[in-house]
Specification:
Blueprint lengths: L3 H11 L1 H21 L16 E2 L15 E16 L2 E8 L8 E4 L3 E8 L8 E3 L5 H4 L11 E2 L2 E3 L5 E6 L6 H6 L4 E6 L1 H5 L10 E9 L11 E2 L2 E2 L4 E4 L2 E2 L1 E7 L1 E8 L6 E5 L5 E6 L2 E9 L2 E3 L4 E7 L7 E6 L2 E12 L23 E9 L2 E4 L11 E4 L3 E8 L9 E6 L5 E5 L14 E5 L3 E7 L4 E7 L2 H5 L3 E7 L1
Parallel strand pairs: 1-16, 2-5, 4-10, 11-17, 16-24, 25-28, 27-34
Antiparallel strand pairs: 2-3, 5-7, 5-8, 6-9, 9-10, 11-14, 12-13, 14-15, 17-22, 18-21, 18-23, 19-20, 19-22, 23-24, 25-26, 28-32, 29-31, 29-33, 30-32, 33-34
Bound molecules: CU-O-CU linkage and copper (II) ion (2 copies).
CU-O-CU linkage binds next to strand 6 and strand 33.
């Protein structure tokens, strides 16, 4: 992560007028208080003053279908306005709201019907990132929704409990549409998640965290700024669309479902008090057992679920950091929370069986600034790059070419419509955090990662770098799965 702290200071300087104003008001209030302190009732419990803004928690989208085996969801893609900074309006995009989207809760085995209405004046698509489904329902560049039109994908959820997400995928326009606010979360629940006594109280001890870096122009609009190196790193980090967020939690274990929803930047998260995270899930669901992690590296598109134990916290404040940047402040209240656990065993992950001499395909990633190629080719919607037989499991070897000028540190490689298992990283067994299901894997410059991919659904799918400006500028290919 580039040095966000200095940038944050610049941002603070830009907003110095607002700060002086706040100081003025505070001095004014002090005078007022001085004048009337005898009138203050002695028993008033004053809520502690918190720095920053309360973390927004995405609304839960209501399932319109009374049948528990079927869920009907409605999503409107719309233009909105947000006040990220007091008194400053920013034009945004959102699903059913101003920025980001609601949470869609689905159950394994459930039939899902979604009606998406595009109220924008440009084309969009809605892609279900991490969902195992047919190409028709995937929502990639081949399922455009024109302005004013509707799109109605249907699919049956048949994969383990996980935190997935959805976002637009129009060819060449994914980066800006996501930057302006189009992204939302999907939770899949199943019998395994039902039976674990982990934190599950949404917004209380089960907290979604969509982390995104952003730049703003002088007049407060988003500044989607490309340069020689790629997308300019944001000087402000939004969490669920909140600037400088804080969250009040009880003294209990809290589950954080992290999504790096940034376009181009990776983060390495840690806690300022030196506490560890207990990682319980990766992109595609639970790990077999929790992992103690000091820090979490997350490239764009990746999800990680962790439990943080606040039940024994001595100091009242714990800060989630990325480098020197304060991402989110937790205020631990002196209130006992729920009795949940960090179980020793979470699930069983069966090894995806592989036949002898499986088909092996090589994908070489190369980039220069925002432009890139896979196997030397720039994405072309009219060209099928790979043909995969339905029902097969293959080995995909992903190599990232390093050493070139203006080449970023690495690329998060993502495959649509499937969850894969990492077989090796640079010839070695994958680290424990990569032993669960993944749909996006980071391949650093000069590295080679081998994954085992299973193709159980027919249709046309994408594979690409999940740095969205790379995806929009050539680093994508498509494969067709057919019997
Ligand atoms: Cu999250 Cu092809 O995307
Ligand atoms: Cu995807
Ligand atoms: Cu890339």
């Amino acid at each position: 992560m580039k040095n966000l702290t200095t940038k944050k200071t610049e941002k603070l300087h830009r907003h110095y007028l607002v700060h002086y104003f706040v100081v003025f008001v505070l001095i004014g209030m002090l005078f007022l208080l001085q004048g009337c302190d005898t009138a203050m009732p002695a028993t008033t419990t004053v809520e502690p003053m918190r720095d920053g803004n309360p973390l927004a928690i995405p609304a839960l989208l209501e399932d319109q279908n009374p049948d528990p085996d079927v869920a009907d969801f409605e999503l409107n893609v719309q233009v909105g306005e947000m006040e990220f900074f007091p008194g400053v309006t920013t034009t945004t995009l959102g699903y059913n709201g101003n920025y980001l989207g609601p949470l869609l809760k689905m159950r394994r085995g459930q039939q899902i019907n979604v009606t998406v209405t595009n109220q924008l004046n440009e084309m969009t698509t809605v892609h279900w990132h991490g969902m195992e489904l047919s190409g028709e329902a995937d929502g990639g560049p081949h399922q455009p929704i024109q302005p004013g039109e509707k799109w109605q994908p249907s699919f049956v959820v048949d994969q383990p409990a996980a935190t997935l997400w959805f976002h637009p995928h129009p060819n060449h326009m994914t980066g800006p549409q996501v930057y302006y606010g189009l992204a939302g979360l999907v939770y899949i629940e199943d019998e395994v998640s039902d039976n674990l006594n982990i934190p599950k109280d949404y917004g209380v001890n089960d907290i979604p965290l969509v982390v995104q870096d952003r730049n703003f122009s002088q007049n407060g609009e988003f500044l989607y700024d490309l340069d020689m190196m790629g997308l300019v790193p944001g000087d402000t980090v939004l969490v669920n669309g909140t600037v400088d967020p804080y969250l009040e939690v009880n003294r209990e274990k809290v589950r954080l479902r992290l999504l790096n929803g940034s376009n181009f930047e990776s983060f390495r998260f840690h806690l300022n008090n030196g506490e560890n995270f207990h990682q319980i899930a990766s992109d595609g669901g639970f790990l077999e057992s929790p992992l103690v992690r000091e820090s979490l590296f997350m490239a764009p598109g990746e999800r990680v679920e962790v439990i943080v134990d606040f039940s024994e916290v001595q100091r009242e404040t714990v800060i989630l950091m990325a480098g020197d940047y304060e991402i989110l402040t937790f205020y631990v209240k002196d209130v006992a929370g729920q009795d949940t656990e960090i179980p020793e065993t979470l699930t069983i992950i069966p090894d995806i069986p592989l036949e002898e001499n499986p088909t092996t395909r090589l994908f070489v990633l190369e980039s220069m600034g925002i432009r890139g190629t896979i196997n030397g080719k720039v994405f072309n919607m009219e060209r099928i790059d790979e043909e995969v037989p339905l029902g097969e499991t293959e080995l995909w070897v992903i190599r990232s070419r390093g050493g070139m000028m203006m080449q970023p540190d690495g690329h998060p490689f993502h495959v649509h419509g499937t969850q894969f298992q990492v077989v090796s990283r640079n010839g070695n067994a994958p680290p424990p955090e990569e032993r669960g299901y993944k749909d996006t894997v980071f391949v650093n410059a000069g590295e080679e990662v081998v994954v085992k991919v299973r193709f159980q659904y027919e249709g046309l799918f994408m594979y690409h770098c999940h740095m969205l400006e790379h995806e929009d500028n050539g680093m994508m290919g498509q494969f067709v799965v057919s019997p």
